[in-house]
Amino acid sequence: MSEVIQRLKRIPMSREEFEKLPEGPPYYDYIGGEAIEVNRPMGKHQEIVGVIWFTLRSFLTERNLGRAWFDIDVLLPTGDTVGPDISVLLTEHLDRYDEQKGDIVGVPDLVVEVSSPSTAEYDRVEKMKVYQQVGVPWVWLVDQDSLTVEEFQWTSEGYLRVNAVKGGEEFRPKLFPDLTINLKALLKRP
Question: Is 77 contained in some domain?
Fold first, then answer.
């Protein structure tokens, strides 16, 4: 495990202990028997997440394709709990949303992680490994500084990067070919 990932505050605990933690802050993922403190998102990060979430939500709603949430707990079949920046369930999997708890229980169809310098390695290495282990079909990694978007598709051999665009270019995801996202334009950045 790299030094960056090791620096994240980790507290060994049982699943039962994790479930008794109060709602954040601080916020935690629960992976492999450890509560891992994740950074509270800053304004730049929140703005990017908001723009992507709104664009996805509008696209999914208009076409009745599913639903999108931001900062929702996802309880994976492995017993791990993660809080992706954005989680999507397609219409045929909406039963994985627990209306009473307000959580996704099972595997989302898409997760989006917007990475800052302090979380990039954690998102790209540790969380991707967890997503691969449970077979999350699609993952988008977005770099908050460069606005680069990478799209990964799950295969039996691991994730295959099927799309990547630099900030300012139009992102047309393989998952949703009719969707176009240009983060620089949406954020009105030079």
Answer: yes
Backbone φ, ψ for residue 127 (5° rounding): -70, -40
- In DSSP notation, 85-142 reads SEEEEEGGGGGGEETTTTEEES--SEEEEEE-TTTHHIIIIIIHHHHHHHT-SEEEEE
pLDDT in tens, 117-164: 888 888 999 999 999 999 999 999 999 999 999 999 999 899 999 999
What are the distances in angstroms from CA 17 to CA 20, 27, 71, 96, 130? 5, 14, 21, 24, 21
Which residue type does 117 have? P
d(CA 129, CA 122): 10
Residues 36-94: pLDDT tens digits? 888 766 888 899 999 999 999 999 999 999 999 998 999 999 999 999 999 999 999 99
Q: What is the CATH number of the domain that holds 88?
A: 3.90.1570.10
Q: What is the pTM of this model?
A: 0.88
Tell me which residue range forms the domain holding 182.
Answer: 41-187
Query: Is 121 part of any domain?
Result: yes
* 16 found inside a domain: no
Specify the higher pLDDT residue, 186 or 190: 186
Which residue reads 């800052």 in tokens?
116
In a domain, residue 36? The reply is: no
